[in-house]
Amino acid sequence: MLTTTVFSNEKVPAEPSDQAAECACPDDRVVEEKPITAALTRRARSFVHGDGHRLYSEMSSDIRDHWLNQGIPAAVVDRMAAFEAMWGGLSLPPAPHYEGGPKIFRSDMPEMDSTGDWWFDAGDQRCSMPYGFFIGPREEFGIEDSHRRAVLHESVAGWVESLALAYRAVHWASEITKVRGAAVDRLDLSNLEPFSEVAGMSDTWWRGGEKVVAVYRGVAHLFNDPELQVATVYDGIAEAPIYLDY
After folding, report:
1. For 246, how many CA atoms within 13 A lie in the half-sphere containing its CB?
2. What is the pTM of this model?
3. For residues 174 and 2, is the Cβ–Cβ distance under 8 A?
4. What angle do CA 163, 218, 140 make, to 5 degrees?
């Protein structure tokens, strides 16, 4: 596959998704905006507080009773309620891939798999897509269709960290290179260190000197098609420890 390089002396906007999130609180949630208390880096906290908006922050007793009456185990409903308390109602700017990510974080549709593990939806898509977003039995965050799943990050916090990095890196990089397909596997990451806060599974972030590399393999893993993997190389981030981490 060919690579595409963008040279710019101006600030290049992140690859926005098609649509912004609509700010309407679901009727089955408690309208009370609370701060996000998850353990995030300074970078991600600044991103969430400066660019995010929380529409609600708690599952109502009515929706909890609804799931229990549907036969969903109390432990699973407790997990969903904990997710709501931590992330529920949070609307963030669109991610550069996955058509922008969830419109808002919102638990829904718990489902048990063949091994007895429970998964639930993490939030609605921003547009029509062949897959959705899930929270796994170990609180991992990923994408799924009707047959398969691909874990992107070990946690929702990892997804938020990656989103904060995407906006920070695109702002400070002087050169941005897009790589797709088999060319992603040929990227030399041996001299780079991973961003551990991203808690990457299918998707990972790497850094070294003035370079940052984001590798997105989620869709490729979901559809078992390596041509769908993509990477973005951000070069020319002067004084990266300052501009990336603070």
Report:
1. 5
2. 0.86
3. no
4. 70
